[in-house]
Amino acid sequence: CYIEVDEHENDTVDQSDENDSKNDDPDHCWTQWSNLPDHILERIFSHLTIKERYYASLTCYGWYRAFYLPHVWSNFLVEDATLGRMRYNYYSGWQPVLDHARLQSCLLSVGHLIRGLDFRPQVSFNNMFQFMSLISWAMEQNARTSGCPREWVGCGSRIRSLNYLFSCNMALSEDPESIKLFGTGGQLLAALKRLMLCLTNLHSLSLVDLILERYEANHLLDEVLESCCLVLRRLCLVNVTNLHCPIMHIGLFLNLQVLEVSPQNIDDDVLMLLADSKVRHLTLLQNRYTPPALAISPCSAKAWLTVRRDNPKLRVHLRVESTTNAVILLQPEAPVASMIYQTPKT
């Protein structure tokens, strides 16, 4: 033990002497990582998690300044452990719990820089509910004509896109073909609708695999239609329901250009609304949670002929993404521009 410690100490001394000699060497070339251009630092920081960005900002003043560059926060990914701390649960063991102090500090620092919100809950739906409730409250403070706290001014004002992917498959098995669907709703859906009401400048909205009941799906976009009827450009609604339930709201956005929707959420009446709209690309998307094509009836050929006549620039894209050998639901007389199969057997 004595010899090993002495050898280690000698190595440390030699290493420090070598570093000192490098510092004294006038010909030693130092790297210039601290002088990277801003557009390169933005690309690097955008691939890091919030924790990694914080540690990187402690490196030097240049990287500290890069932490607050606008494009670094172009997309804010929210998962179960985002801005959370581990807490022991007697039933499930250690689970991530949202840290309200860290969330508030984060929103106060970079809330005015966030341009996109991407929610991907897996297990802890309560964290998503609390996150959406707090950021909605901050934006509601901005909307007040007077009395808004100065530190919350501008929080969430730049958000242009919202993506919400619900983990609807609660199957315990890791087999890709095992499916046990549970939809969202209740207080979590209410918090999501409250957030969408606050986003008055939303250009892109994506709601995937919500699996709602019919009475909830019929009023899903009420708040979106009220807040951004004129500004929404892209709308993605995949598996809003697991049964046939047309969503009439999708034909009421006046400047909508790109629409992705599942076949069970459109019908002839929705197509009549799209015929008088500015939609240029309509994607009928089927994923692994969409009912089989045999369980959904396609829109009538008469309705598609009306769409082709009144909206000649509309292009329809049929797409299927599944872990099984799924079949695309064909649409007779539709102006189909592409058909994409993404299945293991195709």
Care to describe what's here?
This protein has 2 domains: 34-72, Monooxygenase (Up-down Bundle); 73-172 and 180-342, Ribonuclease Inhibitor (Leucine-rich repeat, LRR (right-handed beta-alpha superhelix)). Helices cover 34% and strands 17% of the residues. It is built from 11 helices and 11 strands. It has helices spanning 2-24, 38-46, 50-57, 61-66, 100-110, 125-143, 186-198, 214-217, 222-228, 268-275, 301-310; strands at residues 76-78, 84-89, 93-98, 116-119, 161-165, 204-208, 234-238, 258-261, 281-286, 315-321, 336-342. It has a 9-stranded parallel β-sheet, with no helix packed on it. Strands 2-3 form a two-stranded antiparallel ribbon.
Short structural description:
By secondary structure, the protein is of the alpha/beta class. It contains eleven helices and eleven strands.
List the helices and strands and how they pair.
Layout: H1 2-24, H2 38-46, H3 50-57, H4 61-66, E1 76-78, E2 84-89, E3 93-98, H5 100-110, E4 116-119, H6 125-143, E5 161-165, H7 186-198, E6 204-208, H8 214-217, H9 222-228, E7 234-238, E8 258-261, H10 268-275, E9 281-286, H11 301-310, E10 315-321, E11 336-342
Parallel strand pairs: 1-4, 4-5, 5-6, 6-7, 7-8, 8-9, 9-10, 10-11
Antiparallel strand pairs: 2-3
Helix pairs in contact: 6-7, 7-9, 10-11
Region (Disordered): 1-25
Organism: Anopheles christyi
Biased composition (Acidic residues): 1-18
